[in-house]
Amino acid sequence: MTRLALLGSPVNGALSPVLHRAAYKAMGLPWTYHAIECPPQDLPHFLGTLDGGWRGFSLTMPLKRTVVPLLDETSETVTRIGAANTIVVTASGRLLGENTDLYGVMQALREANVTTATTVTVLGAGATACTALAVGRELGCDQAVVIARDTRRASSLLGPTAERIGIKIIIKPWTAVDHHLAVDLVVSALPPHAADALAPLWKPGTGTLMDVVYRPWPSRFAHAAQGAGRRVVGGLPMLVHQAAQQVALQTGRSPAPVTEMLLAGQSEIREVA
Questions:
Q1: Relative to the CA of 18, which of 3, 91, 176, 251 has its CA 20 to 30 Å away?
Q2: End-to-end CA separation in angstroms for the chain
């Protein structure tokens, strides 16, 4: 039996299994996909003991950076961002790494008619923040502000990471958020509820908020941004598009059934709510 899985910690309640299973059903593939709890220290052993039934994996936090040196081959996007969210397992057992998060965010923004951004603020300093910085570069931004609760952790984005992405990064402390929301694009790369306290800081204006949260939706931060006149793009379209790209890579069949995946995700979110 052909098996795939989501790896990460925590993975309880993750939407990826719903999306991938919907894709396989629409494609007539009798494949299985499950969420597997896998902390970083267990990843090398897990990947080193795979049998021939595995076709690929999705990776969520905190594995997107940890996995990179464990891969046999990585794409240009993985090298540039320094993080992988996708593994394709070849017939010979080689592990090929890809990052479909960048594709997912870009597709979600295009659907919202966001095609340029010369001023960008990113909230957060993890692997998703690296993707957000690459998105900013793709949209025409050459200097971005990163707002971090831990500025020492955020300093890891400087140097080689910034050079690979091709963007200048300015790190600001959490207390500086309200001075950096009046930009073309704000990307909240924070987990659910982490930006709730920032909601009152929005002032009337234009621009776009991309919030990677998809549940609960809208987040308090996104609701306040919309009330202040911002275009808001949620995490579900991003998640669906990145998962669809994973499906295409892992099945070798393109395009993936995006509509069926989106409907399955929407249905799951409604049921849980």
A1: 91
A2: 33
